[in-house]
Amino acid sequence: MSIFNEAISVTGIGLVIVFLGLIILIVFVYILAGLFHDRHSGQKAPEAPAPAAAAAPAPVAAPMVVEQGVDPQVVAVIAAAIAAMDSAGKPLAIRSIRRVTAWNRAARAEQVYRF
Fold this sequence. Notes:
The chain is mostly helical. About 50% of the residues lie in helices and about 5% in strands. The chain is built from three helices and two strands. A two-stranded parallel sheet has the order 1-2. The longest helix has about 35 residues, at about 1-35. It is elongated, with a radius of gyration of 29 Å.
């Protein structure tokens, strides 16, 4: 029974030391966050002037560059997927579409799925 009591006491001491270390780390992080917190957060930002009454001209979109051999349906699907990903409603533009070789995909897969 002596070995069992000793194992319980070592386990208890280990848990206490680990949790005290974690508490010390948490306090340290809060202290650092307080030191490096934005010092200008209490000040008001200068107010921006009222927007001008004249509307700005619509921006001219740059021409899209599509690599030879890319089907126009593929371009339409890519554009639709990009538009679906935008939740803010901002206008998006595709600048270029190019094929990626199998070597690039293999290298990326090797780096990502290495482990």
